Amino acid sequence: MADEPVPPVLGIEPDALPEDIQSFGWTPLEELSGDSNGIDLALLLARNSSCKAGSMGCAIADKSGRIIAGHVNGPVWEPNAKRPASDLHAEVNAVGRCARLGRATEGSSVYVTMPPCKRCFMALIAAGVRRIVTRKEFLTQDSKDIQTAARRLDIAVKVVSDTAERRERLDKLCGPMQKRTLAASFSMTYRTWQGLSPELDKHAPTEENAIKKKWIHRRELGFSVGSGVRNKAIVPGVVDDP
């Protein structure tokens, strides 16, 4: 599986996205790989999320390379909150949209802005996904189990790292109203839940420090990808509005 060529992303089905989710005029570019095109779309979709735990986007392509569904993380329990919780992760919402549209996910590729948590990884396995493409390496505590399972099940897991070119490309698509929040999505932080020092490290609340300082990320909320000023560490129960 690891040596197979990268499949193309050829376009998007007209009804792949819910009516309230924008793709900001995205179309696949010939000069980019299928994985880069897919991650571009996932990042654009993430800009539709206002979840307090961070913005996540996910797109699913079928075997032919067509995007058959896309979605973001969102709430179940408090849908009208200003900053709702990430009760449903983007991957589960995207798989659910495939089910609603009657589209097969067997052999599909998933493009997601952050590595799936274990629960989402299991959902993708159950859906028959064969490739998972993301922007970041898995967290240390999840990596071994997920990578071992992926190898055993012959599921390819690929990382397409961020570049300045991607940021500039997507900023142009989003326009001036979206530029700041899109740029922030490249500064991933983890929402910490317990074990956080009373004094935040204000200099670098980064992924590296989250692991080095053994901040424990809240599994059921997934990852914080950056929304507004979400490139800061967050104290449980405190929401930093932009």
From TrEMBL:
GO molecular function term, any single one: dCMP deaminase activity
Superkingdom of the source species: Eukaryota
Its EC number(s): 3.5.4.12
Residues covered by the CMP/dCMP-type deaminase domain: 33-153
Keywords for this protein: Hydrolase, Metal-binding, Nucleotide biosynthesis, Zinc
Top EC class, one word: hydrolase
SUPFAM superfamilies: Cytidine deaminase-like
Gene Ontology terms: cellular component: cytoplasm
InterPro entries in UniProt: APOBEC/CMP_deaminase_Zn-bd (IPR016192), CMP_dCMP_dom (IPR002125), Cytidine_deaminase-like (IPR016193), dCMP_deaminase-rel (IPR015517)
Membership in a protein family: Belongs to the cytidine and deoxycytidylate deaminase family.
Protein name (database record): dCMP deaminase
Species, as recorded: Symbiodinium natans
Gene behind the chain: comEB
